[in-house]
User: Fold these one by one.
Assistant:
Number 1:
Amino acid sequence: MQFRDLKSQYAIYKNEIDAAVQDVMSSANFIGGSIVKELEAELADYVGVKHCISCGNGTDALSLVLMAWNVKEGDAVFVPDFTFFATGEVVSLNGATPVFVDVDETTFNIDVEKLEKAVKKTIKEGKLSPKVVIPVDLFGLPANYPEIEKVAEKYDLLVLEDGAQGFGGNIDGKMACSFGHAATTSFFPAKPLGCFGDGGAIFTNDDDLAALINSLKIHGKGINKYDNVRIGINSRLDTIQAAILKIKLRAFREHELDDVNRVFEFYNSKLEGSVVKPVIPDGYYSSFAQYTIKLNSKQQRNKLQNQLKEQGIPSMIYYVKPMHRQEAFSDKSYNELDFAVTNKLCDTVLSLPMHPYLKEEEVEKIAGAVNECLG
Ligand SMILES: *Cc1c(COP(=O)(O)O)cnc(C)c1O
């Protein structure tokens, strides 16, 4: 059994994907070109924003937005404590200071009350100026943007949606990667919409921001890449990856997103008793990058993970460590009481196999093993 089955997907779309890759190879146009432009237009249209700018990966996508906003030393950027390292890394990489904020125990996403508290505390301390908040759509569920945007407006913060795991989700029909002032996603193979290597994209309705990012991602280009008007980076989505993504985006829209939501419903109907299942609030739709359950304790989780392993069922812990406990961020001091929820989640969460090609028998086997272990 696979945790995320990329082989089944390839087997179904093999003919189309192989032909598309072959076409790019025959054309020998490996960088840029019409295929990348077409993909960007399709992605922007799907998400419902004016601009999609593709780039090398989801981390560069975040960093490019911070660069364009001139986020720098002395700026505070608010980041959930429970996320993948990159969300905080890009803040430090750009010289600013990440301020970690605890998350909501039910949705796993940034706790908006605690966000406001952290902003107030930062203002009171007077060392850093609050500049940006980066909410993360963790495990596929959009963060609480309606409330986040209120806080952002009140304190004049820019909102950068980290939709690396959230592509395809929505709140009342408004698509993930359309929230905030800008949003980003990742096409890493295991993400909801993945390519066959690295890839990423930025989404925004802001014309000036889009133009600036288009320059920054190509060595700070002016009229062309040999006319350099600012310091940028080199971050591109390969043409081969774009060709693959065009086919995968169609599969994603046609059935994969529905399929993961069916798997979610089926898991929920089969899991019993003491296990806490993922909760999708009213009006929210998740793209289920992960199906994550909560156990009572670390001991119970270890026992379950071992028993699953014995039966050939893979499971993963996202995430073992809160951001504030990462050695890379150990130059700052933290109050553990500020991170009570994240600390607990890191000890009790477990992600079960989740992908559009997971069969009902497999879900039954997994749920059966979980129920037996905890029952
Ligand atoms: C995967 C991920 C990223 C980084 O994406 P890459 O394409 O791997 O650089 C950023 N943020 C979150 C929340 C992620 O899950």
Note: The longest helix spans residues 239-270.
Number 2:
Amino acid sequence: MPSHLPLLLLLLLLLLVAASSSDPISLPLRQTPLPPHPDPLHRLAALASASYFRASLLKNPHRRSSPPSATSSLFPHSYGGYSFNLAFGTPPQELPLLLDTGSHVTWLPCTSSYHCRRCASPSGNTITPFLPRSSSSAALVGCRNPRCLWIHSADFLRSRCAACNNVTSDCPVSACPPYALIYGSGSTAGLLMLETLGFSGRTFPNFTVGCSVFSQRQPAGGIAGFGRGAPSLPSQLGLRRFSYCLISRRYDDDASERGSVVLDPPKQDSSSGLSFTPFLNNSAAGAGSPFSVYYYVGLLEIAVGGKKVKIPHSSLLPDHIGNGGVIVDSGTTFTYMASKVFDPVLAAFVDRVAGRYNRSTALEVQTGLRPCFAVPPNATDVELPELAFRFKGGAEMRLPMENYFVFADAAGVCLTVISDGDDVATADVAGGPAVILGNFQQQDYLVVYDLERRRLGFRRQSCLII
Ligand SMILES: *[C@@H]1O[C@H](CO)[C@@H](O)[C@H](O)[C@H]1NC(C)=O
Ligand SMILES: *[C@@H]1O[C@H](CO)[C@@H](O)[C@H](O)[C@H]1NC(C)=O
Ligand SMILES: *[C@@H]1O[C@H](CO)[C@@H](O)[C@H](O)[C@H]1NC(C)=O
Ligand SMILES: *[C@@H]1O[C@H](CO)[C@@H](O)[C@H](O)[C@H]1NC(C)=O
Ligand SMILES: *[C@@H]1O[C@H](CO)[C@@H](O)[C@H](O)[C@H]1NC(C)=O
């Protein structure tokens, strides 16, 4: 129908003009996201608080403690993380481990006397610990094994290994001394062992994994350390890449709905719709620094409603002692922003929403999230400003509304970003990354950690595998 062509062109032009005008960009938020919960406000508060503790852990890690293409399903948990199954030992014993790109030691609940205080357990399921005695391939890491240096300093080991060879001392004969990993408010302790690791039909002998006998405030099943550095699972397995796809906003322990994690996925480039941004080195932090475990990216700009938020650029890059900068983390639930980043973002949202919805401080107090807005009760569509991140290399993440706003109740929505709260000691989060991009914001994205080419790739897609 050639006669309609000019009209179509005109319409297209109008659309283009409309799209590029400077009007704030708003997106609709539809009510449905979180599954039913007896006390939704309490759940949000719990997730906010878990994110806060996670931020304080990533910002203040105590890595060295004093003595004392294979695809798998990825399951969401009520504690705000995602787990997948790994098999250890001969014959294999399968356990769920938290997928954690913010730490690098892999450990699992181990021995029949494993004790876990205040640990998050997937509802209704108790996890059977790994039993080294039932495995023919389990071996302790020796005191002089270079892998013992992954968790202890050389200085400490010089004296300690001699003592460990003394049968009367408290460590098993010539074994690497026990580790104690401290994660924010939680911790885990045990012995390093070598064990055969099985993942989706592939086996890797002599994988170094922590056999934890005591933990506090940890996921019930242990942690798979996907961070940077020699001890991490990707390094030990020699992976060139890994990727994950997190299903949408269901921290509900429902095993029937899952996303996926892939080790060594095929090479992909921007022709597959992925946007890439290089990983940055936090060189000031140095090789031994706990910050060297994190995946830093160059976040250049945060935009709210299509308008760039004024943020001191320096805070988005690590400073001369390694503080600041932006990391991507699968183990954090809600994105964390230090106040100097968060305050202007908060102000931008408040400014953009003004006149449309009232701010609800009551909801903010109840959930620990800011800002919250009162919306018409049981509204099916709520218009809120778009949140976008622009990264080094041109990659842009324009988040769908569901990845940063949540219905706190039938008449209110809250931004799912946390910052330095006044209810917790602010000193706790003074150092470390200024922004931690959490898993809530990454849902329904395919996220590729291209280790070979040192870059992060992402694209929006549905992650649900039924
Ligand atoms: C072994 O440890 C015991 C107790 O600490 C000590 O008395 C003994 O001298 C040690 N033996 C050696 C060979 O170091
Ligand atoms: C695993 O380590 C043990 C002890 O260090 C060694 O004897 C064995 O050859 C190793 N196995 C493989 C497959 O590397
Ligand atoms: C980061 O460090 C690695 C290894 O230390 C090096 O190969 C790489 O070139 C560095 N990247 C940048 C962007 O400086
Ligand atoms: C905001 O609050 C004021 C005062 O309580 C009220 O009059 C107004 O209708 C509210 N506006 C909206 C959009 O809910
Ligand atoms: C909103 O929906 C809930 C649950 O469906 C219902 O109990 C409540 O009465 C509704 N509120 C209003 C103001 O319609």
Note: Residues 1-22, 63-68, 422-429 have pLDDT under 50 and may be disordered.
Number 3:
Amino acid sequence: MIPTQVDLGSDTATRPGPEMRRAMCEAEVGDEQRREDPTVRRLEEMAAERVGQEASVFLPSASMANEIAYKVHTRPGDEIIIDRWAHPANFEGGGPAALCGATLHHLDTPRGIFTPEQVERAIRPDDPHYSRTRLVSIEQTTNVGGGSVWELARMQAVVEVARRHLLRAHLDGARLFNAAVASGLPASRYGGMFDSVTICFSKGLGAPVGAVVAGTEDFCREARRMKHLFGGAMRQAGILAAACIYGLEHHVDRLKEDHENAAELARGLHEIPGLKLDPEDVQTNMVYLRTDGLGLKPGEFVERLLAHGVRMNAYPYQRVRAVTHLDVGRDGIRKAIEAAREVAAEALGATAKSRT
Ligand SMILES: *Cc1c(COP(=O)(O)O)cnc(C)c1O
């Protein structure tokens, strides 16, 4: 097996570069559990401001950020309205149930983006037979939804329904800055309308570790309690926060390169016979494709591609996902397209031979 040369498996694959490492090395630190780490505090202030909130809490992961937000907003038995394929509903180990005792009300959506009418219909009547609808949770950008961007007006309309019914609203903005860069709107335009906002620094922003959950001062006071409860309170975490600050300062605007690379990848893959995708669907740094035209299951395609040194991942709905990031440049994109072309040609050749 040749080593992976182009890792499009996820934007979590980024490694901290020399400048980021230097920032980590030189970070001023203290005991962050006692709120004495100046670098963590600076990050918390910066992040809150960027997403249009009063304050934020530094955490080891965006999963923990989402779960802490849910824990603060809900009581056991409460219901959360969420897209069926959203991260907390699939990739957080059953956290909403295990950690919060919350049940999920799944909405089926085309690209992870639901309508105000869907939310309206999902809200339970005030009747002891039902769980109490408590929270609407939105993902921006949508991951399984293809890296799609919620338009501001749609998001406002959904949050407006939540407000009218006295529900809370949470934004899982693990990739909020991708949405901001793609739409040209500041992240605060999206983040400011929510009761809590998660952001992740270990995706496109390139930090090795780190996330925040942002909200009002009151929300953050409760979130800090939950951070202790979940075992997420750290000590000299400024070393990690310094990488996140570096990411916020240097790696936000450059996300547009990732988006251009994803578009380039989509155009290249689209030309390969047997691969199915619509380059128009690519709004940020994700490309989803179908491989059934090659007679290959997503897992088989991924395995063969890996033998060429290129990693992609198999994803729900029989698709393959490729994600662009900081550590993949134009050369990597060309290599990935070339590898996919070879895998496709081999597969189609084999199918043609088996027919004769
Ligand atoms: C990756 C991701 C998370 C969780 O991030 P971790 O830091 O890996 O826990 C949450 N939500 C979305 C949409 C994600 O893509």
Note: The chain has two domains: 17-250, 254-355.
